[in-house]
């Protein structure tokens, strides 16, 4: 359980942050980032420092609790040493595993859904059919508020050609297709005939089947077969996580200026925030999240929507 936080009460959080980063920069990888934030990376793990109105917030991470304790000790010891004009107290929370983090409180969840444009009959029936037909896999379907967001983003971008990677039973496809400009088309990619059969019926019921082209094939093959020019207005990636970096690259190079790519599940249930998780898809998502944040081809924002949603807009 290798994530722990502390809020150090002080009126000088930015000063201590800069002192700590400057001092530890001689012994470790320590650097200042934007918005009064900094990172310190030592052999045992890392700590993010952020200056807030109420003090200095610390977020320590490591691969196990022993290494986490070492990170906590290094940061707290040096921080207290710098405080010559006041007595600082660094009280760390108990270590928490990434999947245990409450990314969306249940009360907030309910309030969000209660204050979103309600789902119509085709979407309600599709959600019920998906639960009955797919069991535990039904969790792969986007929530209604996220689907509404997709419709809104599609409309706001004026999209005429959209691409979806990962169809499942077609809920997000309906939401995107409904936002397309007149004459617009959605190309959606999946490998499951069984699940997309449910999608096809739902598209007919929702009246959007004539706007959707389904390709049953590995998505990378479908994407690489597209013209090399900037032809995509909007893309939604919600498929196998290990291939996210490859999907992103194939899409961004074909995204028109002002076009938007939306990536779902960028938190991986909190596991991407927890360095104890080292499977291939965890590593791939961390690399992609870092890449997008520094990708000069796009401007991006990561939102705490459901399991994390990143929006990247082509410059």
Task: Pick out its properties.
315 residues; TATA-Binding Protein; elongated
Description:
There is one protein chain. This protein is of the alpha/beta class and 315 residues long. The protein folds into 2 domains: 3-96, Alpha-D-phosphohexomutase, C-terminal domain (TATA-Binding Protein); 107-314, Rossmann fold (3-Layer(aba) Sandwich), CATH 3.40.50. The protein has helices at residues 13-24, 65-82, 106-114, 121-134, 144-157, 171-179, 193-206, 219-224, 244-252, 280-294; strands at 3-9, 29-33, 37-41, 45-52, 55-62, 161-165, 185-190, 212-216, 232-237, 255-264, 298-303, 309-314. It has a 7-stranded mixed sheet, with helices on both faces. Strands 1-5-4-3-2 form a 5-stranded antiparallel sheet, with helices on one face. Helix 4 (121-134) runs antiparallel to helix 7 and helix 5 packs parallel to helix 6. The longest helix is centred in the N-terminal third of the chain and has 18 residues, at 65-82. The radius of gyration is 22 Å and the shape is elongated. The two termini are 39 Å apart.
